[in-house]
Fold this protein.
Amino acid sequence: MDIAGKLGVARNTVRHAIGKLVNEGLLVRKKGVGTTVAARRIPTRLDSWWSFTEENEEAAWKWRTLI
């Protein structure tokens, strides 16, 4: 029995859902192999670069310079 049969939904619904998971990077579709679960990604904050000062201000840390 296939996934659609087990879930009691149309094959098109399953195909659409799998397509969305592929687009989100949770599944990987390989021609001739099939669809598999994607490797776990390490979350990073590389999409938002802040300066040292901005990070401290965002965290509400108090800092000062001593000479």
